[in-house]
Design a protein that fits this description.
alpha/beta; globular; Rossmann fold; 26 strands; binds 5-amino-5-deoxy-1-O-phosphono-D-mannitol; Glutamine Phosphoribosylpyrophosphate, subunit 1, domain 1; 21 helices; eight-stranded antiparallel sheet; 22% strand; 3 domains; 613 residues
Length: 613
Protein backbone atom coordinates (compact mmCIF):
# COMPACT_ATOMS: atom_id res chain seq x y z
CA UNK A 1 0.00 0.00 0.00
CA UNK A 2 1.05 3.64 0.08
CA UNK A 3 4.39 4.54 1.65
CA UNK A 4 5.73 7.74 3.18
CA UNK A 5 9.30 8.99 3.57
CA UNK A 6 10.39 12.36 4.94
CA UNK A 7 13.94 13.60 5.43
CA UNK A 8 15.39 16.62 7.23
CA UNK A 9 19.12 16.80 7.86
CA UNK A 10 22.39 17.75 6.22
CA UNK A 11 22.56 15.20 3.40
CA UNK A 12 21.27 15.29 -0.16
CA UNK A 13 17.54 14.90 0.56
CA UNK A 14 16.29 13.79 -2.91
CA UNK A 15 18.69 10.82 -2.84
CA UNK A 16 17.75 9.93 0.74
CA UNK A 17 14.06 10.09 -0.20
CA UNK A 18 14.46 7.92 -3.31
CA UNK A 19 16.47 5.40 -1.32
CA UNK A 20 13.73 5.33 1.32
CA UNK A 21 11.03 4.87 -1.33
CA UNK A 22 12.92 1.92 -2.76
CA UNK A 23 12.75 0.26 0.64
CA UNK A 24 8.96 0.66 0.53
CA UNK A 25 8.50 -0.71 -3.00
CA UNK A 26 7.66 -4.16 -1.67
CA UNK A 27 4.43 -2.78 -0.19
CA UNK A 28 2.92 -2.43 -3.67
CA UNK A 29 2.22 0.93 -5.36
CA UNK A 30 1.51 2.41 -8.76
CA UNK A 31 2.95 5.95 -8.74
CA UNK A 32 5.49 7.94 -6.78
CA UNK A 33 6.49 11.51 -6.06
CA UNK A 34 8.52 13.83 -3.89
CA UNK A 35 8.53 17.48 -2.79
CA UNK A 36 11.62 19.30 -1.56
CA UNK A 37 12.33 22.71 -0.08
CA UNK A 38 14.62 24.91 -2.14
CA UNK A 39 15.05 28.18 -0.26
CA UNK A 40 11.64 29.82 -0.27
CA UNK A 41 10.09 27.44 -2.81
CA UNK A 42 8.66 23.94 -2.93
CA UNK A 43 9.75 21.86 -5.93
CA UNK A 44 7.80 18.74 -6.88
CA UNK A 45 8.60 15.72 -9.06
CA UNK A 46 6.10 12.93 -9.76
CA UNK A 47 5.80 9.90 -12.01
CA UNK A 48 3.22 7.23 -12.73
CA UNK A 49 4.75 3.76 -12.38
CA UNK A 50 7.90 2.82 -10.54
CA UNK A 51 10.32 4.69 -8.29
CA UNK A 52 12.92 4.33 -11.06
CA UNK A 53 10.70 6.51 -13.28
CA UNK A 54 10.52 9.09 -10.50
CA UNK A 55 14.29 9.02 -10.21
CA UNK A 56 14.63 9.60 -13.97
CA UNK A 57 12.20 12.50 -13.67
CA UNK A 58 14.23 14.15 -10.89
CA UNK A 59 17.37 13.87 -13.07
CA UNK A 60 15.55 15.55 -15.96
CA UNK A 61 14.33 18.37 -13.73
CA UNK A 62 17.30 19.04 -11.48
CA UNK A 63 21.10 19.27 -11.79
CA UNK A 64 23.72 18.00 -9.36
CA UNK A 65 24.02 21.40 -7.63
CA UNK A 66 20.33 21.28 -6.84
CA UNK A 67 20.62 17.74 -5.41
CA UNK A 68 23.57 18.79 -3.25
CA UNK A 69 21.93 21.82 -1.70
CA UNK A 70 18.53 20.27 -0.86
CA UNK A 71 18.31 18.91 2.68
CA UNK A 72 14.57 18.70 3.40
CA UNK A 73 11.78 16.85 1.62
CA UNK A 74 8.87 14.42 1.72
CA UNK A 75 8.10 11.56 -0.66
CA UNK A 76 5.44 8.97 -1.33
CA UNK A 77 4.54 5.77 -3.13
CA UNK A 78 0.82 5.71 -3.94
CA UNK A 79 -1.47 2.69 -4.26
CA UNK A 80 -4.47 4.18 -6.03
CA UNK A 81 -7.78 4.44 -4.15
CA UNK A 82 -9.36 7.78 -5.21
CA UNK A 83 -8.61 8.27 -8.91
CA UNK A 84 -6.37 6.26 -11.25
CA UNK A 85 -2.59 5.97 -10.82
CA UNK A 86 -1.70 9.04 -12.90
CA UNK A 87 0.99 11.65 -12.37
CA UNK A 88 -1.57 14.26 -11.39
CA UNK A 89 -3.08 12.00 -8.71
CA UNK A 90 0.35 11.02 -7.34
CA UNK A 91 1.46 12.63 -4.05
CA UNK A 92 2.74 15.07 -2.82
CA UNK A 93 -0.21 17.41 -3.22
CA UNK A 94 0.02 21.17 -2.77
CA UNK A 95 -2.38 23.57 -1.11
CA UNK A 96 -4.02 26.46 -2.98
CA UNK A 97 -1.01 28.75 -2.48
CA UNK A 98 1.53 26.13 -3.56
CA UNK A 99 3.50 26.77 -0.33
CA UNK A 100 2.41 23.64 1.52
CA UNK A 101 3.06 20.06 0.36
CA UNK A 102 1.49 16.93 1.82
CA UNK A 103 1.93 13.17 1.52
CA UNK A 104 -0.79 10.97 2.96
CA UNK A 105 -1.55 7.31 3.64
CA UNK A 106 -5.13 6.35 4.51
CA UNK A 107 -8.51 7.64 3.42
CA UNK A 108 -10.23 10.94 4.20
CA UNK A 109 -13.82 9.73 4.35
CA UNK A 110 -15.49 13.17 4.41
CA UNK A 111 -13.34 14.60 1.60
CA UNK A 112 -16.34 15.33 -0.64
CA UNK A 113 -17.92 17.63 1.94
CA UNK A 114 -14.61 19.29 2.68
CA UNK A 115 -13.93 19.75 -1.03
CA UNK A 116 -17.33 21.40 -1.66
CA UNK A 117 -16.77 23.73 1.28
CA UNK A 118 -13.32 24.72 0.03
CA UNK A 119 -14.55 25.13 -3.56
CA UNK A 120 -17.20 27.52 -2.26
CA UNK A 121 -14.31 29.54 -0.80
CA UNK A 122 -12.58 29.66 -4.18
CA UNK A 123 -10.22 26.68 -3.96
CA UNK A 124 -9.38 24.98 -7.22
CA UNK A 125 -8.42 21.27 -7.32
CA UNK A 126 -6.30 19.48 -9.91
CA UNK A 127 -6.60 15.81 -8.88
CA UNK A 128 -9.35 13.37 -7.95
CA UNK A 129 -7.74 12.55 -4.63
CA UNK A 130 -8.91 12.94 -1.05
CA UNK A 131 -5.31 13.93 -0.21
CA UNK A 132 -5.35 17.13 -2.24
CA UNK A 133 -8.41 18.19 -0.26
CA UNK A 134 -6.47 17.74 2.99
CA UNK A 135 -3.54 19.78 1.61
CA UNK A 136 -5.95 22.61 0.77
CA UNK A 137 -7.64 22.33 4.15
CA UNK A 138 -4.30 22.72 5.94
CA UNK A 139 -3.50 25.73 3.76
CA UNK A 140 -6.92 27.18 4.59
CA UNK A 141 -6.25 26.76 8.33
CA UNK A 142 -2.72 28.23 8.13
CA UNK A 143 -2.62 31.60 9.88
CA UNK A 144 1.17 31.64 10.25
CA UNK A 145 1.73 28.51 12.37
CA UNK A 146 1.93 25.28 10.31
CA UNK A 147 1.78 22.99 13.36
CA UNK A 148 -1.44 24.60 14.57
CA UNK A 149 -2.85 24.58 11.04
CA UNK A 150 -2.31 20.82 10.77
CA UNK A 151 -4.00 20.32 14.19
CA UNK A 152 -6.96 22.44 13.14
CA UNK A 153 -7.33 20.67 9.81
CA UNK A 154 -7.09 17.19 11.32
CA UNK A 155 -9.87 18.05 13.78
CA UNK A 156 -12.16 18.40 10.73
CA UNK A 157 -11.15 15.14 9.13
CA UNK A 158 -13.03 11.82 9.33
CA UNK A 159 -11.12 8.73 8.29
CA UNK A 160 -7.56 7.54 8.58
CA UNK A 161 -4.25 9.21 7.95
CA UNK A 162 -0.52 9.02 8.27
CA UNK A 163 0.87 12.30 6.92
CA UNK A 164 3.99 14.39 6.44
CA UNK A 165 3.67 18.10 5.69
CA UNK A 166 6.16 20.70 4.48
CA UNK A 167 5.79 24.50 4.14
CA UNK A 168 8.09 26.87 2.26
CA UNK A 169 7.03 29.57 4.73
CA UNK A 170 8.44 27.56 7.66
CA UNK A 171 11.59 25.78 6.48
CA UNK A 172 13.53 23.60 8.93
CA UNK A 173 10.54 21.52 9.96
CA UNK A 174 8.29 18.69 8.80
CA UNK A 175 5.01 18.00 10.55
CA UNK A 176 3.93 14.35 10.82
CA UNK A 177 0.73 12.91 12.26
CA UNK A 178 -1.20 9.67 12.40
CA UNK A 179 -4.63 8.21 12.93
CA UNK A 180 -5.01 4.61 11.88
CA UNK A 181 -2.03 4.60 9.51
CA UNK A 182 1.45 4.06 10.92
CA UNK A 183 4.14 6.71 11.21
CA UNK A 184 7.58 6.04 12.65
CA UNK A 185 10.26 8.68 13.10
CA UNK A 186 13.98 7.89 13.05
CA UNK A 187 16.04 10.05 15.37
CA UNK A 188 19.49 10.16 13.76
CA UNK A 189 22.65 12.10 14.39
CA UNK A 190 21.92 15.51 12.87
CA UNK A 191 19.05 14.17 10.81
CA UNK A 192 15.48 12.95 11.29
CA UNK A 193 13.61 10.55 9.03
CA UNK A 194 9.88 9.99 8.87
CA UNK A 195 8.34 6.88 7.37
CA UNK A 196 5.32 4.67 7.35
CA UNK A 197 7.62 1.66 7.71
CA UNK A 198 10.78 1.26 9.78
CA UNK A 199 12.63 -0.43 6.90
CA UNK A 200 13.05 2.98 5.19
CA UNK A 201 14.80 4.33 8.27
CA UNK A 202 17.41 1.61 8.75
CA UNK A 203 19.97 3.24 6.46
CA UNK A 204 20.06 6.24 8.82
CA UNK A 205 19.50 5.06 12.37
CA UNK A 206 18.19 2.26 14.57
CA UNK A 207 16.59 4.72 17.04
CA UNK A 208 12.90 5.26 16.32
CA UNK A 209 9.73 6.66 17.81
CA UNK A 210 6.33 5.22 16.85
CA UNK A 211 3.50 7.74 16.82
CA UNK A 212 0.21 6.73 18.43
CA UNK A 213 -3.17 7.59 16.95
CA UNK A 214 -3.90 11.33 17.12
CA UNK A 215 -0.25 12.20 17.76
CA UNK A 216 1.23 15.10 15.82
CA UNK A 217 4.99 15.61 15.65
CA UNK A 218 7.16 18.60 14.88
CA UNK A 219 10.23 17.04 13.28
CA UNK A 220 13.45 19.03 12.92
CA UNK A 221 17.10 18.24 12.28
CA UNK A 222 17.59 18.08 16.08
CA UNK A 223 14.75 15.73 16.99
CA UNK A 224 11.04 15.45 17.59
CA UNK A 225 8.42 17.25 19.67
CA UNK A 226 5.19 15.23 19.94
CA UNK A 227 1.80 16.56 21.00
CA UNK A 228 -1.81 15.48 20.79
CA UNK A 229 -4.22 17.19 18.43
CA UNK A 230 -5.06 19.71 21.17
CA UNK A 231 -1.40 20.75 21.20
CA UNK A 232 -0.76 19.12 24.61
CA UNK A 233 2.74 17.51 24.85
CA UNK A 234 2.84 13.69 25.01
CA UNK A 235 5.79 11.42 25.72
CA UNK A 236 6.65 8.54 23.41
CA UNK A 237 9.52 6.15 24.04
CA UNK A 238 12.52 5.84 21.75
CA UNK A 239 12.74 2.22 20.58
CA UNK A 240 15.73 0.42 19.09
CA UNK A 241 15.19 -1.37 15.76
CA UNK A 242 16.52 -4.91 15.80
CA UNK A 243 16.36 -5.65 12.06
CA UNK A 244 19.46 -5.04 9.96
CA UNK A 245 19.62 -3.38 6.57
CA UNK A 246 20.90 -6.56 4.97
CA UNK A 247 17.77 -8.37 6.20
CA UNK A 248 15.86 -6.18 3.77
CA UNK A 249 18.07 -7.23 0.80
CA UNK A 250 17.69 -10.21 -1.52
CA UNK A 251 20.93 -11.86 -0.37
CA UNK A 252 21.74 -13.46 -3.72
CA UNK A 253 18.30 -14.96 -4.36
CA UNK A 254 16.44 -14.09 -7.55
CA UNK A 255 13.39 -12.95 -5.59
CA UNK A 256 12.55 -11.99 -2.01
CA UNK A 257 9.91 -14.73 -2.04
CA UNK A 258 12.52 -17.41 -2.71
CA UNK A 259 14.83 -15.94 -0.10
CA UNK A 260 12.01 -15.95 2.43
CA UNK A 261 11.06 -19.56 1.61
CA UNK A 262 14.68 -20.54 2.20
CA UNK A 263 14.85 -18.51 5.41
CA UNK A 264 12.06 -20.53 6.96
CA UNK A 265 14.22 -22.96 8.89
CA UNK A 266 15.95 -20.08 10.61
CA UNK A 267 12.77 -18.04 11.02
CA UNK A 268 11.03 -21.01 12.61
CA UNK A 269 13.99 -21.61 14.94
CA UNK A 270 13.65 -17.98 16.06
CA UNK A 271 9.89 -18.33 16.49
CA UNK A 272 10.24 -21.51 18.57
CA UNK A 273 13.47 -20.83 20.50
CA UNK A 274 13.00 -20.70 24.28
CA UNK A 275 9.26 -21.19 23.98
CA UNK A 276 8.97 -24.96 24.47
CA UNK A 277 9.13 -26.74 27.82
CA UNK A 278 10.42 -30.17 26.89
CA UNK A 279 10.19 -31.34 30.53
CA UNK A 280 6.55 -30.46 31.10
CA UNK A 281 5.46 -31.11 27.51
CA UNK A 282 4.16 -27.57 27.29
CA UNK A 283 5.16 -24.14 26.04
CA UNK A 284 6.29 -20.93 27.68
CA UNK A 285 4.77 -17.88 26.02
CA UNK A 286 5.17 -14.98 28.39
CA UNK A 287 3.36 -12.62 26.02
CA UNK A 288 0.11 -14.58 26.42
CA UNK A 289 -0.02 -13.15 29.93
CA UNK A 290 -2.73 -15.50 31.19
CA UNK A 291 -2.63 -17.17 34.57
CA UNK A 292 -3.59 -20.86 34.75
CA UNK A 293 -6.87 -19.71 36.35
CA UNK A 294 -7.64 -17.37 33.44
CA UNK A 295 -6.90 -20.19 31.01
CA UNK A 296 -9.29 -22.54 32.79
CA UNK A 297 -12.05 -19.94 32.62
CA UNK A 298 -11.86 -19.40 28.88
CA UNK A 299 -14.77 -20.96 27.05
CA UNK A 300 -13.92 -20.11 23.46
CA UNK A 301 -11.02 -19.12 21.21
CA UNK A 302 -11.81 -16.85 18.26
CA UNK A 303 -9.09 -16.44 15.66
CA UNK A 304 -9.31 -13.46 13.33
CA UNK A 305 -7.22 -12.43 10.33
CA UNK A 306 -7.24 -11.91 6.57
CA UNK A 307 -5.76 -13.83 3.64
CA UNK A 308 -2.82 -16.02 4.57
CA UNK A 309 -3.16 -15.06 8.23
CA UNK A 310 -6.75 -16.28 8.13
CA UNK A 311 -5.53 -19.62 6.79
CA UNK A 312 -3.05 -19.88 9.67
CA UNK A 313 -6.00 -19.23 11.98
CA UNK A 314 -7.85 -22.16 10.39
CA UNK A 315 -4.98 -24.50 11.29
CA UNK A 316 -5.10 -22.97 14.78
CA UNK A 317 -8.81 -23.79 15.02
CA UNK A 318 -8.05 -27.48 14.58
CA UNK A 319 -5.22 -27.25 17.13
CA UNK A 320 -7.24 -25.53 19.86
CA UNK A 321 -10.22 -27.87 19.55
CA UNK A 322 -8.21 -31.02 19.12
CA UNK A 323 -5.55 -30.41 21.77
CA UNK A 324 -7.16 -28.08 24.28
CA UNK A 325 -10.71 -29.36 24.01
CA UNK A 326 -12.01 -25.81 23.76
CA UNK A 327 -14.51 -24.45 21.27
CA UNK A 328 -12.52 -22.59 18.61
CA UNK A 329 -13.62 -20.74 15.53
CA UNK A 330 -12.10 -18.58 12.83
CA UNK A 331 -13.70 -15.39 11.64
CA UNK A 332 -12.70 -13.19 8.74
CA UNK A 333 -11.66 -9.90 10.27
CA UNK A 334 -13.63 -7.89 7.71
CA UNK A 335 -16.82 -9.73 8.61
CA UNK A 336 -16.22 -9.82 12.36
CA UNK A 337 -16.18 -6.06 12.55
CA UNK A 338 -19.61 -5.50 11.06
CA UNK A 339 -21.62 -8.53 12.10
CA UNK A 340 -22.01 -7.48 15.75
CA UNK A 341 -20.28 -10.68 16.94
CA UNK A 342 -21.34 -12.40 20.15
CA UNK A 343 -18.21 -11.99 22.24
CA UNK A 344 -17.76 -11.91 25.99
CA UNK A 345 -15.11 -11.87 28.69
CA UNK A 346 -14.61 -15.65 28.61
CA UNK A 347 -13.55 -15.46 24.96
CA UNK A 348 -9.92 -15.38 23.93
CA UNK A 349 -9.65 -13.44 20.66
CA UNK A 350 -6.37 -13.91 18.79
CA UNK A 351 -5.68 -11.39 16.02
CA UNK A 352 -3.25 -12.79 13.46
CA UNK A 353 -1.39 -10.37 11.21
CA UNK A 354 2.09 -10.43 9.71
CA UNK A 355 2.22 -6.68 9.23
CA UNK A 356 0.18 -5.78 12.29
CA UNK A 357 -1.36 -2.99 10.22
CA UNK A 358 -4.18 -4.67 8.27
CA UNK A 359 -7.15 -2.31 8.55
CA UNK A 360 -9.84 -4.98 8.89
CA UNK A 361 -7.92 -6.93 11.52
CA UNK A 362 -7.22 -3.77 13.49
CA UNK A 363 -10.90 -2.80 13.41
CA UNK A 364 -11.84 -6.31 14.57
CA UNK A 365 -9.38 -6.02 17.48
CA UNK A 366 -11.03 -2.79 18.56
CA UNK A 367 -14.47 -4.37 18.35
CA UNK A 368 -13.38 -7.41 20.40
CA UNK A 369 -11.82 -5.15 23.06
CA UNK A 370 -14.95 -3.07 23.18
CA UNK A 371 -16.99 -6.20 23.87
CA UNK A 372 -14.73 -7.18 26.76
CA UNK A 373 -12.91 -10.16 25.23
CA UNK A 374 -9.46 -11.22 26.30
CA UNK A 375 -7.61 -10.04 23.16
CA UNK A 376 -4.08 -10.87 22.09
CA UNK A 377 -2.14 -10.68 18.84
CA UNK A 378 0.20 -12.72 16.75
CA UNK A 379 2.20 -10.23 14.71
CA UNK A 380 5.53 -10.24 12.96
CA UNK A 381 6.26 -6.53 12.79
CA UNK A 382 7.45 -5.37 16.18
CA UNK A 383 5.76 -2.17 17.36
CA UNK A 384 3.01 -2.47 14.74
CA UNK A 385 -0.39 -1.00 15.55
CA UNK A 386 -2.17 -4.30 16.22
CA UNK A 387 0.65 -5.47 18.49
CA UNK A 388 0.53 -2.23 20.43
CA UNK A 389 -3.24 -2.00 20.66
CA UNK A 390 -3.67 -5.53 21.92
CA UNK A 391 -0.89 -4.96 24.44
CA UNK A 392 -0.37 -8.70 24.87
CA UNK A 393 0.46 -11.43 22.44
CA UNK A 394 3.33 -13.24 20.84
CA UNK A 395 5.71 -11.95 18.18
CA UNK A 396 6.68 -14.30 15.35
CA UNK A 397 10.35 -13.22 15.14
CA UNK A 398 10.29 -14.32 11.47
CA UNK A 399 12.33 -11.30 10.36
CA UNK A 400 11.17 -8.82 7.70
CA UNK A 401 8.90 -10.36 5.07
CA UNK A 402 9.32 -8.27 1.95
CA UNK A 403 7.65 -10.32 -0.78
CA UNK A 404 3.94 -9.60 -1.06
CA UNK A 405 3.24 -13.33 -0.98
CA UNK A 406 3.46 -14.42 2.62
CA UNK A 407 5.57 -17.52 3.26
CA UNK A 408 7.71 -17.53 6.37
CA UNK A 409 5.12 -15.52 8.30
CA UNK A 410 2.53 -18.26 7.63
CA UNK A 411 4.70 -21.11 8.86
CA UNK A 412 5.76 -19.13 11.93
CA UNK A 413 2.12 -18.20 12.63
CA UNK A 414 1.17 -21.88 12.55
CA UNK A 415 4.13 -22.85 14.76
CA UNK A 416 3.24 -20.19 17.34
CA UNK A 417 -0.46 -21.11 17.26
CA UNK A 418 0.49 -24.73 17.93
CA UNK A 419 2.53 -23.60 20.92
CA UNK A 420 -0.35 -21.44 22.16
CA UNK A 421 -2.76 -24.36 21.82
CA UNK A 422 -0.28 -26.62 23.59
CA UNK A 423 -0.03 -24.23 26.52
CA UNK A 424 -3.80 -24.00 26.81
CA UNK A 425 -4.16 -27.75 26.38
CA UNK A 426 -1.71 -28.59 29.16
CA UNK A 427 -3.67 -26.31 31.49
CA UNK A 428 -6.79 -28.28 30.65
CA UNK A 429 -6.89 -31.89 29.58
CA UNK A 430 -3.81 -32.85 27.48
CA UNK A 431 -1.57 -35.43 29.18
CA UNK A 432 2.13 -34.77 29.75
CA UNK A 433 2.93 -37.67 27.44
CA UNK A 434 0.90 -36.30 24.55
CA UNK A 435 2.17 -32.79 25.26
CA UNK A 436 5.75 -34.05 25.12
CA UNK A 437 5.20 -35.84 21.80
CA UNK A 438 3.82 -32.66 20.23
CA UNK A 439 6.49 -30.41 21.79
CA UNK A 440 9.19 -32.66 20.35
CA UNK A 441 7.71 -32.47 16.87
CA UNK A 442 7.34 -28.70 17.15
CA UNK A 443 11.01 -28.42 18.14
CA UNK A 444 11.92 -30.43 15.01
CA UNK A 445 10.00 -28.14 12.62
CA UNK A 446 13.11 -26.28 11.34
CA UNK A 447 14.70 -29.58 10.27
CA UNK A 448 11.44 -30.88 8.77
CA UNK A 449 11.18 -27.73 6.68
CA UNK A 450 14.80 -27.98 5.58
CA UNK A 451 14.13 -31.47 4.24
CA UNK A 452 11.45 -30.06 1.95
CA UNK A 453 13.61 -27.15 0.82
CA UNK A 454 16.32 -29.64 -0.15
CA UNK A 455 13.87 -31.00 -2.73
CA UNK A 456 13.65 -27.68 -4.54
CA UNK A 457 15.28 -29.00 -7.73
CA UNK A 458 12.72 -31.82 -7.94
CA UNK A 459 9.83 -29.41 -7.28
CA UNK A 460 11.15 -26.94 -9.90
CA UNK A 461 11.28 -29.78 -12.42
CA UNK A 462 7.70 -30.83 -11.63
CA UNK A 463 6.53 -27.22 -11.97
CA UNK A 464 7.40 -27.30 -15.69
CA UNK A 465 4.37 -29.49 -16.34
CA UNK A 466 1.94 -27.14 -14.57
CA UNK A 467 2.62 -23.80 -16.24
CA UNK A 468 0.16 -23.97 -19.13
CA UNK A 469 -3.11 -24.54 -17.29
CA UNK A 470 -5.73 -21.84 -16.69
CA UNK A 471 -7.15 -23.49 -13.57
CA UNK A 472 -5.95 -25.63 -10.67
CA UNK A 473 -7.62 -27.17 -7.63
CA UNK A 474 -6.11 -27.86 -4.22
CA UNK A 475 -7.81 -30.36 -1.92
CA UNK A 476 -7.28 -31.51 1.66
CA UNK A 477 -9.05 -32.67 4.82
CA UNK A 478 -8.68 -31.82 8.50
CA UNK A 479 -5.73 -29.48 9.13
CA UNK A 480 -4.67 -30.04 5.51
CA UNK A 481 -7.82 -28.24 4.34
CA UNK A 482 -6.43 -24.79 5.29
CA UNK A 483 -3.15 -25.84 3.66
CA UNK A 484 -5.11 -26.46 0.45
CA UNK A 485 -6.62 -22.96 0.75
CA UNK A 486 -3.20 -21.43 1.32
CA UNK A 487 -1.65 -23.41 -1.57
CA UNK A 488 -4.33 -22.11 -3.92
CA UNK A 489 -3.88 -18.53 -2.71
CA UNK A 490 -0.12 -18.74 -3.25
CA UNK A 491 -0.47 -20.10 -6.78
CA UNK A 492 -3.12 -17.62 -7.91
CA UNK A 493 -1.54 -14.50 -6.46
CA UNK A 494 1.89 -14.96 -7.99
CA UNK A 495 1.30 -17.00 -11.16
CA UNK A 496 -2.16 -15.61 -12.11
CA UNK A 497 -3.40 -19.17 -12.67
CA UNK A 498 -6.95 -19.38 -11.37
CA UNK A 499 -6.66 -21.70 -8.36
CA UNK A 500 -9.20 -22.75 -5.74
CA UNK A 501 -8.81 -24.66 -2.51
CA UNK A 502 -11.54 -27.04 -1.40
CA UNK A 503 -12.20 -29.53 1.31
CA UNK A 504 -11.54 -32.81 -0.51
CA UNK A 505 -15.12 -33.94 0.11
CA UNK A 506 -16.58 -30.77 -1.41
CA UNK A 507 -15.38 -31.31 -4.98
CA UNK A 508 -18.19 -33.64 -5.85
CA UNK A 509 -20.73 -31.07 -4.64
CA UNK A 510 -20.05 -28.83 -7.62
CA UNK A 511 -16.44 -27.99 -8.54
CA UNK A 512 -15.78 -31.45 -10.02
CA UNK A 513 -17.86 -30.27 -12.99
CA UNK A 514 -14.87 -28.13 -13.99
CA UNK A 515 -12.40 -31.02 -14.27
CA UNK A 516 -11.19 -31.83 -17.78
CA UNK A 517 -8.38 -33.87 -19.17
CA UNK A 518 -5.17 -32.52 -17.62
CA UNK A 519 -6.74 -30.13 -15.06
CA UNK A 520 -4.27 -30.03 -12.18
CA UNK A 521 -5.53 -31.23 -8.80
CA UNK A 522 -3.02 -30.80 -5.99
CA UNK A 523 -3.95 -33.26 -3.26
CA UNK A 524 -2.76 -32.89 0.34
CA UNK A 525 -2.60 -36.61 0.99
CA UNK A 526 -0.19 -36.79 3.92
CA UNK A 527 -0.52 -39.79 6.20
CA UNK A 528 -2.82 -38.24 8.81
CA UNK A 529 -6.38 -39.20 9.79
CA UNK A 530 -8.62 -38.87 6.75
CA UNK A 531 -5.87 -39.71 4.23
CA UNK A 532 -7.68 -42.74 2.82
CA UNK A 533 -10.76 -40.66 2.14
CA UNK A 534 -8.64 -38.00 0.42
CA UNK A 535 -7.13 -40.72 -1.75
CA UNK A 536 -10.69 -41.81 -2.60
CA UNK A 537 -11.35 -38.23 -3.77
CA UNK A 538 -8.13 -38.30 -5.78
CA UNK A 539 -9.43 -41.38 -7.60
CA UNK A 540 -12.66 -39.53 -8.42
CA UNK A 541 -10.61 -36.73 -9.98
CA UNK A 542 -8.35 -39.11 -11.90
CA UNK A 543 -11.41 -40.86 -13.31
CA UNK A 544 -12.33 -37.50 -14.87
CA UNK A 545 -8.92 -36.97 -16.45
CA UNK A 546 -7.36 -34.64 -13.84
CA UNK A 547 -3.61 -34.61 -13.46
CA UNK A 548 -2.81 -35.23 -9.77
CA UNK A 549 0.13 -33.81 -7.87
CA UNK A 550 0.16 -35.40 -4.43
CA UNK A 551 1.81 -34.13 -1.27
CA UNK A 552 2.45 -37.42 0.51
CA UNK A 553 4.34 -38.62 3.57
CA UNK A 554 7.88 -39.90 3.18
CA UNK A 555 7.82 -43.67 2.77
CA UNK A 556 4.11 -43.84 1.88
CA UNK A 557 4.66 -45.37 -1.55
CA UNK A 558 1.12 -46.65 -1.66
CA UNK A 559 -0.22 -43.07 -1.58
CA UNK A 560 2.47 -41.90 -4.00
CA UNK A 561 1.41 -44.58 -6.48
CA UNK A 562 -2.08 -43.05 -6.64
CA UNK A 563 -0.65 -39.78 -8.01
CA UNK A 564 0.71 -38.68 -11.39
CA UNK A 565 3.42 -36.67 -9.61
CA UNK A 566 4.30 -36.37 -5.96
CA UNK A 567 6.38 -34.51 -3.42
CA UNK A 568 7.28 -36.33 -0.21
CA UNK A 569 7.28 -34.49 3.11
CA UNK A 570 8.59 -35.85 6.42
CA UNK A 571 6.38 -37.85 8.79
CA UNK A 572 5.35 -35.94 11.94
CA UNK A 573 2.37 -35.00 14.14
CA UNK A 574 -0.67 -34.29 11.90
CA UNK A 575 -0.88 -30.64 12.99
CA UNK A 576 2.87 -30.10 12.57
CA UNK A 577 2.71 -31.75 9.14
CA UNK A 578 0.84 -28.69 7.82
CA UNK A 579 4.13 -26.75 7.89
CA UNK A 580 6.36 -28.92 5.65
CA UNK A 581 3.34 -29.51 3.38
CA UNK A 582 2.80 -25.79 2.82
CA UNK A 583 6.51 -25.24 2.17
CA UNK A 584 6.27 -27.75 -0.69
CA UNK A 585 3.34 -25.75 -2.11
CA UNK A 586 5.19 -22.44 -1.71
CA UNK A 587 8.12 -23.79 -3.76
CA UNK A 588 5.77 -25.25 -6.33
CA UNK A 589 3.90 -21.95 -6.78
CA UNK A 590 7.14 -19.98 -6.90
CA UNK A 591 8.59 -22.11 -9.70
CA UNK A 592 5.36 -22.15 -11.72
CA UNK A 593 5.20 -18.33 -11.48
CA UNK A 594 8.89 -17.99 -12.34
CA UNK A 595 8.50 -20.16 -15.43
CA UNK A 596 5.52 -18.04 -16.48
CA UNK A 597 7.70 -14.93 -16.18
CA UNK A 598 5.54 -13.28 -13.51
CA UNK A 599 6.54 -10.35 -11.34
CA UNK A 600 6.79 -12.53 -8.26
CA UNK A 601 7.61 -10.12 -5.44
CA UNK A 602 5.08 -7.49 -6.42
CA UNK A 603 2.15 -9.21 -8.12
CA UNK A 604 -0.23 -6.98 -10.02
CA UNK A 605 -2.92 -5.19 -7.98
CA UNK A 606 -1.57 -6.46 -4.66
CA UNK A 607 -0.06 -4.68 -1.69
CA UNK A 608 1.97 -6.08 1.17
CA UNK A 609 0.14 -4.26 3.86
CA UNK A 610 -3.58 -3.70 3.28
CA UNK A 611 -4.39 -0.59 5.28
CA UNK A 612 -7.76 0.13 3.68
CA UNK A 613 -11.02 -1.75 4.22
O1 LIG B 1 -0.25 -8.45 7.33
P1 LIG B 1 -1.39 -9.42 7.39
O2 LIG B 1 -0.97 -10.77 7.79
O3 LIG B 1 -2.51 -8.91 8.27
O4 LIG B 1 -1.95 -9.48 5.93
C1 LIG B 1 -3.13 -10.16 5.62
C2 LIG B 1 -3.20 -10.48 4.14
O5 LIG B 1 -3.27 -9.30 3.40
C3 LIG B 1 -2.00 -11.29 3.68
O6 LIG B 1 -1.85 -12.44 4.45
C4 LIG B 1 -2.11 -11.67 2.20
O7 LIG B 1 -3.19 -12.53 2.00
C5 LIG B 1 -0.81 -12.32 1.78
N1 LIG B 1 0.10 -11.33 1.32
C6 LIG B 1 -0.96 -13.35 0.74
O8 LIG B 1 0.26 -13.97 0.47
Amino acid sequence: MCGIVGYIGKANAPSALIRGLRRLEYRGYDSAGLAVLDGGRIEVAKAAGKVSSLQDRTRELWDQDFFNRITTGIAHTRWATHGPPTEVNAHPHLDQSGDIALVHNGIIENYRNLRSRLEAKGHHFHSETDTEVLAHLIGDCDKGDLFQAVCDALHQVEGTFGIAVLSSREPGKIIAARRGSPIVIGVGDGESIISSDASAILAHTQRVIYLDDNDIALVTIDGVDIRDLNNVPVTREVAELTMSESAAEKGGFEHFMLKEIHEQSEALSNAIRGRLDLEAGSSVLAGMGTSPRDLAELTRVVLIGCGTSLHAGLVGEYAFEDLADIHAEVQQAAEFRYRNPIIGNCDLVIAISQSGETADTLAAVREAKQKGAFVMSLCNVVGSTIARETGRGVYLHAGPEISVASTKAFTCQVAVLLMMALRLARGRRLSREDGLALAKDISAIPQLVQKVIQQEAHIAELAKDYTKNDHAFFIGRGPMYPVALEGALKLKEISYIHAEGYHAAELKHGPIALLEKGTPVIALACDIPGKDKTIGNVEECRARGARILGIVTEGDQEAADCMDDYIMVPRCHPLVATIPAVVALQLFSYHVARLRGCEIDQPRNLAKSVTVE
